[in-house]
Amino acid sequence: MAVLSKIREKTVFLIVIIALALFSFVLMDLFSNGGFSSDKSQNVIATINGEDVSREQFAMEVENYQRNSRGNITTTQAVNQVWDATLRSTLMKEQIDALGIEVGSDQLNNAIKEQFAGNPNFTNEAGIFDINKMREYVANLKASSPQAYQQWVMLEDNVAEQVKVGTYLTLVKAGIDATLAEGKSAYQLANNTVNFKYVTLPYSQIEDVEVTKEDIKAYINKHKEEFKSEAATDIQYIYFEEKASLEDENALKAEIQKLLKKRVVYNQVSKINDTLQGFANVTDNEAFLAEFSDTQPAVRYFFKKDLPTEQAEQIFTLEAGQTYGPYKANGFYNVAKVVRTKQVADSVKANGMLISYKETGAAEVSRTKEEAKKLADSLLIEIKGNSAKLATLATTFSDDPTTKNANGELGWLQYAQVNQSSPVIEYLFDNAQGEVGVVETPAGFYVLEIAETKNIQRAVEVTMLQKKIEPSEETSNALFTETTKFEIAAKQGNYNEEVKKANYEAKPVKGIKNMQENIPGLGSQRALVQWTFEEKTKAGDVKRFDLPNGYVVAQVTAKYPKGLMQVEEASAKVTPIIQREKKAEILKKKITAGTLTEIAKNQNVSVQTANAVNMKNPMIAGAGSEPEVVGAAFALAEGSLSKPIAGKAGVFVVETIAKKEAPALPSYKQMATQESQARMMQVNRELYEALKAKAEISDNRASFY
């Protein structure tokens, strides 16, 4: 009682303590997720030029996109596709609204006409699209099915938007048509030529020069437009693959060997020992494989050329009832068993026709099964008397559109590629050339003729006992222990030192983007990518991720904010450029003589000649594409010598020998047209990229996917 009394006295105090604890827990969760978030931040997937993209609507479109793709893409792929479509649509709509582009009823009807030209709902007796038919169809939808009518309205809206976009793109394209002057310029770039002599001091003469971080930073700041970057992260990782050990494989092979032979097992029900047949001598292969095989591959005949290359000789020479294996292939240990052998053609040319009956569900067929069989038998008699009649009879009587429209020809059938258990195939390949007969199938009665057979040869019917090669529980536990040990050591110590100690090889991955899904060497790893971008994740952090076939222990090695690339991020691209610039300055200082011959002699190089070079394709034989060098040659007067020019392959000095202008044309319309067409091919993509670059976009997809 004294204890209860004390508890009652402290009740209020305990309630206050619990409430404070719960409140602090809530606060901690709020702060860890960026503070008190508004409803807007939870319901907006992105903002494009001030216009919010609803999270709910976006999620619905992603779900629809995945459903329409029938499971062939991942969620992240669907998100990126829907995002690209949403962004493109929003940016285009802004431009269309700003220009006041509208769609008239005639434009809309013409667009619908193009889209539904062959739809029987909208065509008249002559098979021509009839606008009144369409209006009647829409009116019926509105009256009978409000839901279907709403879908039609959405379709009309979609078509209208397409027309608006088409109109907008037409306006843009009209503004980028090439003029006759631009056509003339393009003609001259391709046809004006220059001959010149030159010497080259290749950059390879100079050993690599030092490039400092300050050099790279200065270059980035000087070329800011080239080095704008989204937020990115770098990682390195160790992949611990969960796979069967040698001991696991040996144990599996031993298990398979036992399944091949007779064995005695204790029957728990009858309390006596039972003798069980092994795979080598069991008669009911299907029941045996259903109980002991990890897969039940289809039993079929194989020619030698169609068997696995490495095992073809051993399997093909087996007689009925003999086995080969176990052998390792495609992640399984396999035992092949030949069930039977036969001589069969590898291909058959066949003709035929199908006589269906109403019970098969064939359209526009009213005959009964008995009537169909009687008709098939009578047609067979006709063909036996004269097989040439089959073509005419098939076009008249066949209920199979393929044979009806092809004069009864089934063509050449390859035994290795057909369904060998089909009654039609069994008849065609089990009988001789010239045979005709009737075969019953679920679709009706086939009247068949074996017109020709080729390459009759031995085939073996093979069934297969397969056991998947998997790690044992002991192996899996050992891998987990190894992974956990490394993870803990890498978190507590130095990741790279622990890698070295364990003799692992860490794989680096640079420039991971926020909405990236795949990691080279690991495949789809969205959770890993998201972790690297979390605010609480810092450079140097280590985490283990579970994979379907093992584990990965990853470390974030760098995090780059949105904006200009960091020195480390741009180094791979910028370092070679700066090295080339520094080497060019060194080489330029080495050139002091006045003529090409003197320069060549002093630098131990030769004077070379380039003839008929144009600006459209500024290729110099032996040096490659050098637009600045060729441009300098065109700019010089004939007989003049250039200053040293920093090209792509080295430092050049050129002397122009002769310039030849292309003959003037009466008209440059064709060239202007070609230039316009080249621009048109790029306009859609470049317009979208330009609108995207100009837009203010807040993209929050990574917070939800």
UniProtKB/TrEMBL annotation:
Broad class of the protein's primary localization: membrane
SUPFAM superfamilies the UniProt entry points to: FKBP-like, Triger factor/SurA peptide-binding domain-like
Domain PpiC: from-to ranges: 345-452
GO CC terms, sorted: plasma membrane
Membrane-crossing segments per the record: 12-31
Topology in membrane: Single-pass type II membrane protein
Pfam families recorded: Rotamase_3 (PF13616), SurA_N_2 (PF13623)
Annotated localization: Cell inner membrane
GO MF terms, alphabetically ordered: peptidyl-prolyl cis-trans isomerase activity
Alphabetical keyword list: Cell inner membrane, Cell membrane, Chaperone, Isomerase, Membrane, Rotamase, Transmembrane, Transmembrane helix
Family: Belongs to the PpiD chaperone family.
Protein name per Swiss-Prot or TrEMBL: Periplasmic chaperone PpiD
Species name: Mesonia hippocampi
